[in-house]
Amino acid sequence: MRPKLTFIFCLVFGVNPFVSASEGCPVLEGNFQPGGLLWGKTEPNARLEFNDVQVPVLEDGTFLLGLGRDAPNKLELRVNETSLCPIELQTRQYRISRVEGVPQRTVTPPEEQLVRIREERRRVRSAKAKRVKREEFLFAVKSGLAWPVTGRISGVYGSQRFYNGKPGNPHYGVDVARPTGTPVLSPGPGVITLAEPDLFYSGGTVILDHGFGLSSSFLHMSRIDVQVGEEVRTGDPIGAIGATGRATGPHLDWRMSWFNQRVDPQLLVPAMP
């Protein structure tokens, strides 16, 4: 995990931009790069807007911001519609590979599967749209997540393949390769909002809501041990590794989202043992 940085920022409309954080803009800490999470603290009744999202604020004023894979180097947080606070990010490079001669049927799903795929995507969006508001969940996440499984990292966040010259979707998670049946444990506390045994792309899939827009997804599992609505804590079993869906071998694909931004789980855990 990269070391946390602290960054003080503020630009208030019509006021000298070099003012203290107390004059309108909070102090942020976290990973200032695409895929990172940022934490801050403001007045409990403050109204925050970031990337067209109304940011939830906890009772003590704590809030969370998620940075997507393609986040620009300069972003803005609006506070109470009176302060516009710039955020500067580091540039991040991703692993890009090109594969030629791939049969087109493996790149584009067959027409008869498109209705199924659209319905499954609707169910996933609905699960991620649920908003659990348990402050203790989010505080536990802030203190650090645990690896849901340990092993060889076979895929990293942000990487992308070009098939026959056409770009595939970027990889938004971290892959850990282990044999089928290896237990998958909850990396942090939350509530299960999706538990599907056989989605077209992701196979056995679980979504865990950590609260206030932050969620984890676990893909390609051979077995699911939880149900929708179940509350889990760090280390609780949620299923087992598999190669279901469109997978070339047994592994866990762990992904995280903050609202509509895909964040990098590997930035929130210690180095792989």
UniProtKB/TrEMBL annotation:
Residues 170-265 form the M23ase beta-sheet core domain. It comes from the Bacteria. Pfam families: Peptidase_M23. Gene3D superfamilies: Glucose Permease (Domain IIA) (2.70.70.10). Keywords: Signal. It comes from Candidatus Paraluminiphilus aquimaris. Residues 1-21 form the signal peptide. InterPro entries: Cell_wall_metabolism_enzyme, Dup_hybrid_motif, M23ase_b-sheet_dom. The keyword Metal-binding does not apply. This is M23 family metallopeptidase.
